[in-house]
Amino acid sequence: MQMRIVVPILIAFLSWGAQPQFPDTPAARQFAAWLAAFNDSDPTAYQRFSEKNLPKRQSNNEEHQEFRKQTGGFEFIKAEQSTPTRFTGLVKERNSSQYARFVIEVDAAEPHLIAGIDLRAIDNPNDPPPARLSETDLLAALRTKLDQEAAADRFSGAVLLAKNGKPIFTSAFGMADREKKIPNQLDTRFRIGSMNKMFTAVSILQLAEAGKLQLTDPLGKYLADYPNKNMASKVTIHHLLTHTGGTGDFFGPQFDAHRLELRALKDYVTLYGKRDLAFEPGSRWEYSNYGFLLLGLIVEKVSGEDYYDYVRNHVYKPAGMNSTDSMPEDQIVKDRSIGYSKQDSKTWQPNTDTLPPRATSAGGGYSTVEDLLRFANVLNGHKLLNEHYTDLLTTGKVEGGGGGKYAYGFNDNVRDGVRWFGHGGGAPGMNGDLKIFPQSGYVIAVLANMDPPAAGRISEFIAARLPK
């Protein structure tokens, strides 16, 4: 299932001379107000601000208190891009040396309510960008980095780096079960959070390639009994695939209250289906787990198969992904690691109480780094989709969170002239990332059974240093 997105950001002030100034725009003024409320030692200050300025789905005061405790609050470092409705820049955590890039978007009309706010961990902007290394030097540097992270208890999981379809580096660290002292192995199955979105998107594109649906079709064409008719008539499959449908999320107090009741995809529609659009479809990008939940229901309706059976038969089996699935949590899964989180504790605790009864089409299944490589190989080899639909799947469509573009269930990024596509996933006790480099033939797969950004930190380390 699509797990609660844990924003991997930890941000405070570095002396760069004069105190940086906020631009005089609605978006920048809202960010300054948000930052002041977030940093206020009085928890009611943030609650008052969020109730007035934030969408309900982003105004969880309990989560704010926990996040502020972890970070110590943020300090504004500098502005990067500024328009009346969008403002981006850098902040730094007060409790550590970690930096983050923020993006805030506000409504164009008064009172300029916050449409979305996102923060993502980045390397220290004062440091020069890491140099590209030779393959031999990279593998040596990676081994050193992993040893350091594992020794500091900042990484527990498995890492795979491949070139032209074959692994050139593999390793595993930490414990799959800390109580029973069972170590992680290369074939350990890790929960993958939102990485499942790639498999759901492939399924939709397979049905489009077969002529069974059109990406421009509205949601209501396939889910004719969808409760909110406005959403059903306006939101297209393209909107759902690109997080531009205004369908919102489902994490928050309502999810927490009903978590154990959500046993099938249709249960989410029962809970959230009457909710109206958060914004006009196609007008902006906002990450939506609920949108990908609806895509799973469309797969069922169009194919006539249960979603889990369809993905198993049409994605996992053709790829040889024999260790990947989304079996219910009450079933024993051989070699699956326990996820460990410090979200509400100073010590690592199992994430069992955060998990729904079963993963969904928005994420939360499990896989191995070797299976992720198999997926990348068959995708690159056009064995899941023909060349046209593979390009359609992985080519960026809209500006999305994380600094790149969002395609159909895939991020599409370019750094230093080097392109990669893939997807990450994160939630309490789990983190993963897959990066596929089409020009150089490299594939990075990292999975961790601990809080973000454990896997993302390693994936970014490798990506920044890969030979071009």
Describe this structure as you would to a colleague.
- The protein has 468 residues and is an alpha+beta fold.
- The chain has 2 domains: 26-122, Roll (Nuclear Transport Factor 2, Chain: A), CATH 3.10.450.50; 133-468, 3-Layer(aba) Sandwich (Beta-lactamase), CATH 3.40.710.10.
- Helix content is 33%, strand content 20%.
- The strands form 5 sheets. An 8-stranded antiparallel beta sheet has the order 6-5-18-17-16-15-14-13, with helices on both faces.
- Residues 1-18 have low confidence and may be disordered.
**What's the arrangement of strands in the largest beta sheet?**
6-5-18-17-16-15-14-13
Strand content: 15-25%
Helical residues, percent: 25-40%
Low-confidence stretches: 1-18
The CATH level-2 architecture of the largest domain is identified as: 3-Layer(aba) Sandwich
From the N-terminal CA to the C-terminal CA, the straight-line distance is 35 Å
Major sheet: size, sense and barrel closure? 8 strands, antiparallel
Envelope shape: globular
Radius of gyration: 21 Å
Mean pLDDT over all positions:
89
Provide a count of the helices. 14
Write the layout of secondary structure elements.
Blueprint: H1 26-39, H2 43-53, H3 61-71, E1 74-82, E2 86-93, E3 99-106, E4 114-122, H4 135-151, E5 157-163, E6 166-173, E7 175-177, E8 182-183, E9 190-191, H5 196-209, H6 229-234, H7 237-242, H8 253-258, H9 265-272, H10 289-303, H11 307-319, E10 340-341, E11 349-350, E12 366-367, H12 369-380, H13 387-394, E13 398-399, E14 405-406, E15 411-415, E16 418-427, E17 430-436, E18 442-448, H14 454-465
Antiparallel strand pairs: 1-2, 2-3, 3-4, 5-6, 5-18, 7-8, 9-12, 10-11, 13-14, 14-15, 15-16, 16-17, 17-18
Helix pairs in contact: 1-2, 4-14, 5-10, 5-11, 9-10, 11-12
